[in-house]
Design brief:
Length: 182
C-alpha cells in the first residue's frame, strides 16, 4: 500500500514539474508562415490536384474561419462586391515564360484560387504553431481562362499568404515550381 502511495505522489510531482517547465511560445499576433512543400497529382480530366503545405505560427491563435463566420468582416459581399476577407488563404499564380515568371490573371476577375481554411485553435487565445495543407483543383484544360494561358507541361509556382480573424496578414511565401499535368 505504501509503495502505491509513493508512486502516485512521485507521478504527481513529475507532472507538476513537467507543466511548470513548459513556457508558452512568444509569437507575434500576426501570423508567420513558411513554405513546406507543394505537389500536384494529375487527374484524367485535364486538371491537377495541387496540395500546398505551409508551416504557421500565431501568438494569439486566432487563425481560421468556421462555416458560421459569415458576418462582418467575413461576409461574402460588401456593397455588392466580393469581400476579400470572406477568404483567409490567398494564392497568386505565376507561369514560367522564357525563363522568367510572369503573373497569371484569370480572364473572369471574380474567379480566384483563394479559399478558406478551418479554425485551428477553436476559440482559445493562446499561441499556436503547426502545418496547414491547402488543396485545390487546377484546371489546365481551360487554358484560355488564364492570361497568359496555361497548358499541360507548363511550369508554374504560387505565392501564399494567410490572414487571421483580426485581419492580420501574414508574410508572403513562394512555393517551389511544379509542372502542370505531370
Amino acid at each position: 500500500m505504501m509503495n502505491t502511495t509513493k508512486i502516485i505522489i512521485l507521478l504527481c510531482f513529475l507532472s507538476l514539474l513537467a507543466t511548470a517547465c513548459f513556457k508558452e511560445p512568444n509569437y507575434a499576433d500576426t501570423p508567420a508562415i513558411a513554405f513546406e512543400s507543394i505537389r500536384n497529382v494529375p487527374i484524367n480530366n485535364g486538371s491537377d490536384s495541387v496540395i500546398i503545405t505551409i508551416a504557421y505560427q500565431d501568438g494569439d491563435g486566432d487563425m481560421g474561419l468556421s462555416s458560421t463566420d459569415t458576418m462582418p468582416p467575413f461576409q461574402r459581399l460588401v456593397s455588392g462586391q466580393p469581400n476579400q476577407f470572406y477568404n483567409n488563404y490567398f494564392l497568386n499564380i505565376y507561369k514560367k515564360v522564357r525563363g522568367s515568371y510572369v503573373p497569371v490573371r484569370f480572364v473572369e476577375p471574380s474567379f480566384t484560387l483563394n479559399g478558406r481554411y478551418p479554425r485551428l485553435n477553436g476559440s482559445r487565445k493562446s499561441a499556436i504553431e503547426g502545418t496547414l495543407k491547402y488543396s485545390f483543383v487546377f484546371f489546365y484544360v481551360f487554358s484560355n481562362a488564364y492570361t497568359p494561358s496555361i497548358s499541360r507541361n507548363d511550369t508554374v509556382k504560387f505565392d501564399v499568404q494567410v490572414v487571421d480573424r483580426a485581419l492580420n496578414k501574414s508574410n508572403i511565401v513562394e512555393t517551389q515550381e511544379i509542372i502542370i499535368g505531370r
